[in-house]
Amino acid sequence: MTLKFNGKKPSRRAFLQGAATMGAGLTLGGQARAADPAIAVKPWMQELGDGVDTSPYGMPSEYEAHVKRRNVEWLTADTVSSINFTPLHELDGIITPNGLCFERHHAGVARLDPREYRLMINGLVDTPMVFTLEDLMRFPRENHVYFLECAANSGMEWRGAQLNGCQFTHGMIHNVMYTGVPLRLILEEAGVRTAGKWLLPEGADASAMTRSVPLEKAMDDCLVAFKMNGEALRPEQGYPVRLVVPGWEGNMWVKWLRRIEVGDQPWHHREETSKYTDLLADGSARRFTWEMDAKSVITSPSPQAPITHGKGHTVITGVAWSGRGTIPRVDVTLDGGINWHQARMSGPSLEKSMHRFYYEFDWDGSPLLLQSRAHDSTGYVQPTKDMLRKIRGENSIYHNNGIQTWAINAEGIAENVEIS
Questions:
Q1: Residue 307: which domain range?
Q2: Cis omega before residue 140 (within 30°)?
Q3: Does residue 46 fall inside a structural domain?
Q4: Please, which contacts does 253-256 make with residues 24 or more away whose CB atoms are closer than 8 Å?
C-alpha cells in the first residue's frame, strides 16, 4: 500500500507530520478509524528509560505479568508433589521460554551445588565410573529441540470436559533446545557388558525418582543435558543435569540425574507399576507405553484466549507434536468435524518437536466448534476421545491424545466441550 499527498509520494518527514495531523490509524482491512488518543505523544516518548544495567538478567514487560505457569490447587494435597502448567495460549512459535516450562515434582525442587555434583555409572559395566559436571562438559555435545510431555497431560479429560483452558488441559508440555552429551558416549566410556539390556536412571531429589529405560533407546538419542535454550537448566528443570528421552513420556526424563545403573531386566519400581501404566476397562494394565502419540491443540481462540475483535478476519493457531517423528499436516474444523481444512504449517519441522500451525478465515459471528487433528510422519492420525475410550475404557489418566473441542459463542467466548 502506498500513500500519496497531492499526488506525490511523501518524504518520511512529511508522512510522519501528515499522520500526526490526521490522528488516525489503519486496521487490517485498510479502513480508516476515528482519531485514537493512543497515537498522541506519551510520557515514555519524552523521558529517559532505564539504563543497560537496571536488569542484569532481563525480565518480561510488567504488562505481561499475567503470562505465567499456573497450578490447579485442588489437584494435589501439597505442591511439593504436584504440577503447574505452561500457558500455551499466550505463546507463539515453537520454543517455550525457560521461565514458562511446566513443572512436575515428586518431592519439590532439589537445590544442588554444581561443585558437588556427581554422576555415577554402575551395574553391568566394565568400569564403574563417577563424573563431575566438568567431566561431562568435556564430552562432545549436541543441540536438539525436543518436546517434553507428561504422560498425564490431558489426563483429567478422559471422562469428559473438565478444565476450561488449554493451559490446564494441555499445558503439561514444553518445547526447548537441549544442550548435552549423547548418553551412548558416557556408557561407552564405562563399557556396557553384553548382559546389559536396561538402564535405571536415578534422581538426586528426595523422591529418588527412578525409571527403567531400554538400552536400545539410551544408545539411540538420549542426552545427558545441562543447558536448555542456551542457558543452564533451571533448578525446577533438573539443574545441573537431567536426562532427555526424546519422544517418550516426561516421567522418564529424570531430573537432578545422579546415577545410572545398567541391568539385564527392568526394575518395575513404583513409578512404572502403581503409576505410569495405563489401566484398561477389564482391570489389566498396559505397561511400557513410553512413546507419546501424535497430538495437537488450538491455543487461540480458546477459553483463556477468546475472540475479542468481533466479526471479520480471524487467525486460529495451535501446536502439534509426535513422539515418533514430525508433523507434516494439521487439519482444522470450524463445525465440529463436518468439514476439515488443511492448516498452514509455519516454522521449523523437527523430529520429536512441537510444530506451529495457523488457519485464517473470516468469522461471521456464528457459533463455532473448533478442533485440530494432527497427522505425523508415520501416517498416524490423531483420534477422537471416543475412539480412544472404545479401546482403553475410562480408567486411565495417561496418554490421552484425543482431539480437543472448543465451543465459541457469538461473543467470541470459548468453552471446553465434548461432542459425539
A1: 295-417
A2: no
A3: no
A4: 253/148, 254/201, 254/202, 254/203, 254/209, 254/210, 254/211, 255/110, 255/203, 255/205, 255/209, 256/110, 256/112, 256/203, 256/204, 256/205
Inter-residue contact 23 to 14 (CB < 8 Å): no
Give the pLDDT band (50/70/90) at residue 76.
Answer: confident
In-domain check, residue 204: yes
First and final C-alpha spacing in the chain? 47
- Does residue 60 sit within a domain? no
How far apart, in whole angstroms, are the C-alpha atoms of residue 13 and residue 18?
8
Number of domains into which the chain is organized: 2
The CATH number covering residue 163 comes to: 3.90.420.10
Give, for 405, the enclosing helix (H) or strand (E): strand 405-408
Distance, CA of 30 to CA of 17 (rounded, Å): 20
Q: What is the pLDDT of residue 11?
A: 52
- Length of the chain (residues): 420
Maximum Cα interatomic distance, the chain, rounded to a whole number of Å = 86
For every residue of 265-320, DSSP letters joined together read S----GGGTTSSSEE-TTS-EE----BPPPEEEEEESBTTB---S-SEEEEEEEEE
pLDDT number for residue 36: 87
Model confidence at 372: pLDDT above 70: yes
Judge contact between 227 and 281, C-beta under 8 A.
Answer: no
Inside any domain, residue 24: no
Do 261 and 122 touch, CB atoms closer than 8 A? Answer: yes
Q: Report pLDDT digits (tens) over 81-98.
A: 999 999 999 999 999 999
Query: Per-residue pLDDT tens for 218-274?
Result: 999 999 999 999 999 999 999 999 999 999 999 999 999 999 999 999 999 998 988
Q: Band of the pLDDT at 21, cuts 50, 70, 90? A: very low
Q: What is the pTM of this model?
A: 0.91
**Assigned C-alpha cell, 417:** 466441550
Residue with grid cell 521460554, as numbered in its chain: 97
Cell numbers for 159: 471422562
